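Incident log, structure service

09:12 report received: a user says their structure output differs between two submissions of the same chain.
09:20 pulled the input from the user's history:
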Amino acid sequence: EGSELLSLFLTRSKTSLKQESGPEILSGAPHRPTYPPTDRRPIMASSSVAYMTVGQRLDSFIESIDPSLSPTTKLYACVVCASVGFSFLLLNGRGSNAGGPDASGGPKSASKNESSSSGPSRRSGGGVSAASASSGGGRREPKWGVLKALNVVAALAFLFSVIRFASDASRHMSDSTSLLKFMSIWSALLCYFFGFFGISFVDAEGFSVAGEETKTTEKTTKKAAGEEEDDDEDGGPGKKTAPAGSRSIPEKPQHANLHPPAPSAPVCSDPTSRAPITKKALPPNLQGMPDNEIAALVLSGVVKDHQLEKLLSPARAVPVRRIVFERKLSSLNRGGALDELPHEPSLDYGRVHGANCEIVVGYVPLPCGVIGPLTLDGETVYVPMATTEGCLVASANRGCKAISQGGGARSAVIRDGITRAPCVRMRSAMEAAELKLWCEDPANFARLKSAFESTTSFGKLLGAHPTVAGRNVYLRLRCFSGDAMGMNMVSKGSLAVIELLRSTFPSLELVALSGNMCTDKKAAATNWIEGRGKSVVVEATIPKDVVRATLKTTVPAMVNTNLQKNLVGSAMAGALGGFNAHAANIVTAIFLATGQDPAQNVESSNCITLLEETPTGDLWISCTMPSVEVGTVGGGTGLPAQASCLRAIGCKGGGANPGDNARKLARVVAASVLAGELSLLAALAANTLVQAHMIHNR
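09:34 re-ran on a clean worker, output below:
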C-alpha cells in the first residue's frame, strides 16, 4: 500500500508540474503557481482526496473550520500554549521544601521560617532544619518523580501512535477525522518535549546543583538520625569497610545538630556570583526592614550573606551578619560566642598590660570573617579568620562547602608534644658523648621526667633526645602541655632538667635555654620529620559532581595541578615543608583570630597536600601537618575578641580532659587548610585566580 501511494503521489506531482509549467518557466521569468480557491465543502466529498498529501489534508481540514467559531491561528495557539504552559507549571511547581519562603518573598514569609532556619529543630535536636536545608535557601524544586513518569508516558504514547498509524496508513490517510486525531496527538507531544528540554537547558546547572544539595542534605539527615553509626572514633567493630581499591572516609558517630553545606557560593568562587544582583525576589523595602527580619531572610536563603554589603551598606551588613551567625551558633549550643568580638572600635587596655604588649599606643583592627559550616569528624564547625587579604575567606568558604557536600572531613592528631632544646657545653667531646648516653638510659630518663614534672601541674615529659656536635649537646625535650601551647611550661621544666644534669655532670655549662633545635619560629627539617606541637592528618573525598558544580573544574585537572605545582614545583625550589598551595594563609588568619602566636605560623604551616582520583572518579585529598602549635589557654587566648573566636569554634579554655580543646583547635586548623587548598587548586586548574583577585583584592 505504501508503494502504491508513493507512485500515485509522484505521478500526480509530475502531471501537476506539466500543467502548471508554461512559457514563464521555460523562459526563466518569475513564476508564482496559482491554486484554486478552496471551498467550504467537507474534504471527504472531494474526488481527489486519495491523492492529497498529509500536509495538504491537514491544511484543507483547518481551512474547512468555520473561522467565526475557531480561527486557524487560535487553534494552533491554544494547542501550543496549553502544552508549554503545562510543562512550565509542572517544572516550576512547589516541591517538598516546606521550609522555603512564601512566593511573595516578603518579611512575613521570612519570619515564618525563622525558627526552622536558625533556631533548634524538633527533628534535628537543635540544628538547622532539614526542610530549610533541602530547599536550598527557599528555592522551589521541580517534581522530579512526576516528570519522570510523564516522560515515560509521553514517549510510549508517541511510539504507540506512530505504530498505530503505520499499521493502517492508507485508511488513516483517507480519513480526515482520524488523521486530525493523530496530528493533534503528535503536535501536543512534540510541544511537551520541546518545552521540557527547553526549560531544562535554561536551568540545567541550577537543577543539578539543587539535586546535589538535596542528596547531601538527605544523607546528612540520615546520619543525624543515627542510621549510619560507628562504635568509636578510632574505629571499632561497627566501622564500615570500603570497597576494595577505593578510598573513603571512615564514618564517625553523627551529631543531631549537623549543619548542611552553605547553599550559596562564596564571592570569589564563581564568576556568576560577581554578576549584578537580581532584586526581583527581594522585598522592595529591604533597607527599611529591621536587622532581625533581614537576618531571617538570610537564614531562609532569600538574601545571600555575601550580598549584604551591596544590598544594605558595609556598616549595616556587619551587625546583620552577626545576628545570622549568632543564631547558627546558638543551634550548636554556642549562643553568645561573638558577644565579646568587637565590631566597633574598642579595646580593654587593662587586659593588655603585663600580658600581651608593652609601650602601648593603640591597636590595629583586623577584619574578621567566618567560614563554614564545615563538617569535621561528624560535627559542624564555624571558623573565624582575621585577614586583610581579599578573597581568602570567600575561597576557604568554598572549600568548606565542597567538603561538607562530600560528607565531611576526618582528622586525627597522631603526635602531641611541644619541644625545647637547651644547648649545653662540656669540657670535651668525650664528656659530651657520655652525657648523651646517660640521658638515653631509661632509668636516667625517669629522673629527668620527675625533675621536669615537678615544675608543672599539667606538663608531662615525653622524651629527651640529645644530639652531639663536638663539645656541644643539644637536648631536645618533648613535653605534653595540656590545652596550653606550652612554651613557658616546657622552658620552666627545661631549667629543672639542666639543674639535675649539673648535679651529675659538674662541668656542664648552659649556653642557651633554646639551642635552635627546638625549633621555634624557624623553618627546620627536625620539625618536618619529628614534629612539634600537634601533628595532624586530615582527609576528605569530594564527589566528582561537586568538583564540577562547586569548584568549577574537573578531578583530573586538580590532581595534575597539585602534582606539577605542590610536589614537583616545590621540590625544584628546594622547599622544606612547603609542599602545599597556601597553608600559611589559612594558618595565619586563624592564629590572628584565636590569639595564637602569629610568628609560629612558620613551622605550623608545614604541610604536604596530596590529591588522587579514586576508582569511581571522585577526588581524594589529604593534608598532613606535622607541627601545628596551638593552645586554648594562656597568651592571647585571654583577650575578649580572641576568646570569642575560640568560643565560636567550641574550644575556649581547658577541655574536659587536658589537651582536648587544643587538639580540637589543631584539627580545625588542618581541616580549614584542606578547604583552602581545595579552593585555590581549583581556581588554578580553572585559571580563575587572577580574575577573582582583580575584583576583590585590589
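09:41 both user submissions now match this output. Likely a transient worker issue. Closing.
09:42 reviewer note: The radius of gyration is 36 Å. Confidence is low (pLDDT under 50) at residues 17-49, 94-139, 200-210, 220-250.
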